[in-house]
From TrEMBL:
NCBIfam families: PRK11669.1. Substrate binds at residue 295. Belongs to the peptidase S11 family. Residues 46-64 have a biased composition (Low complexity). SUPFAM superfamilies: beta-lactamase/transpeptidase-like. This is Murein-DD-endopeptidase. One of its GO terms (biological process) is proteolysis. GO terms for molecular function: serine-type D-Ala-D-Ala carboxypeptidase activity. The keyword Signal applies. Residues 44-72 are annotated as: Disordered.
Length: 348
């Protein structure tokens, strides 16, 4: 019995000793297992990447698709009219290159150097199209040349409410402003009620005023131009790019038209409180533009229009943009024209 007890005690001591030696080694084994697992994961990731790598045919298809998308997204190139002459200051190939030198999105675009009378760019220059509120330049020309008293008070009536397009106006019925203020708002912020009131208060009323508008157009050689009312809300008021250049040149000879079309903002009293009106052409407020005459226009039939006389690189330029789609297109086209002209002048 004593031997048996002795043997049991000896076995127990050996087991305890063995347990104490083995247990501390468990932690490093677990760490090693984690390391091994992580190391194995990396090749698996690499294998996945290798699997996702496109084949040569897939690459070719992807490249062709990208080229197709790029070609589709590329802007349409404006094609200069055959009648375009070289500008006297830069008879270079760049002015007649239709593959990227000047790309405009307006349906009608016309750029003329007034110093030399050279046409620098033309796109659909012969198109006779609705001109929307560009009409108001002729309205202003007739009013100024009539010599009517500019301080005479004119009242907005129900006759001045737009029944063509039902557009909104900030000039409520009963508003009384001077003829000068009405002219200012008609030119600067394209106020339709103001323009109609000016025509209505012309000697002989609206019929006589419209007749005077058309007579002035004939006198200026505007053969493609016809007016039926003084606001531009009617799509029957039509003109062409070259005719509008004639109109702007004539308007630029009237200091009042130059001032009113290029003012950034103007305040008048309406319904007992001062209201500030702003220019519909945002470019007049930019320091990098030197604009002499400006007018915007919009009705659905005409699209968005912009005409300007501006000094670019020391030269007076006429810019006509008609039927632009989108509120920013005409402004963006004008910016492209200015940069293009500056680049051409700087290349001399």
């Amino acid at each position: 019995m004593a031997r048996i007890r002795k043997r049991i005690l000896s076995v127990s001591l050996m087991c305890a000793l063995t347990a104490g030696l083995v247990l501390p080694a468990a932690a490093p084994v677990a760490y090693a297992a984690t390391t091994t697992k992580s190391a194995k994961a990396k090749p698996a990731k690499k294998a996945t990447a290798a699997k996702a790598k496109p084949t040569k045919s897939a690459k070719a298809a992807k490249t062709a698709s990208a080229k197709k998308r790029a070609a589709k997204a590329a802007p349409r190139k404006a094609v200069a009219a055959a009648s375009i002459r070289h500008a006297s200051y830069a008879p270079s190939a760049a002015l007649e290159d239709a593959d990227g030198n000047l790309s405009l999105r307006s349906s009608v675009a016309f750029v003329q150097d007034l110093n030399s009378s050279d046409v620098l760019f033309a796109k659909n220059e012969g198109a006779v199209a609705p001109i929307a509120s560009i009409t108001k330049l002729m309205t202003a020309l007739v009013v100024v040349d009539a010599g009517l008293p500019l301080d005479e008070m004119i009242e907005i009536t129900t006759d001045d409410i737009d029944t063509h397009k039902f557009t909104h106006s900030r000039l409520s019925v009963g508003t009384r402003l001077s003829r000068a203020d009405m002219l200012h708002l008609a030119l600067m912020s394209s106020e339709n009620r103001a323009a109609n009131a000016l025509g209505r208060n012309y000697p002989g009323g609206l019929p006589a005023f419209v007749q005077a508008m058309n007579a002035k157009a004939v006198a200026l050689g505007m053969q493609d131009t016809h007016y039926v009312e003084p606001t531009g809300l009617s799509s029957e008021n039509v003109s062409s790019a070259r005719d509008l250049v004639r109109l702007m040149r004539e308007g630029s000879q009237r200091p009042l038209i130059r001032q009113y079309t290029t003012d950034t903002e103007y305040s008048v009293e309406v319904a007992g409180r001062h209201q500030t009106f702003r220019n519909t052409n945002r470019l007049v407020a930019r320091s990098d533009w030197n604009i002499i005459v400006s007018k915007t226009g919009f009705i659905n039939e005409a699209g968005r229009c912009l005409v300007m006389l501006a000094n670019i690189g020391g030269r007076d330029m006429a810019i006509v943009l008609l039927d632009s789609v989108g509120s920013l297109t005409r402004t963006a086209d004008a910016q492209r024209i200015r940069q293009w002209v500056q680049r051409e002048i700087g290349a001399l």
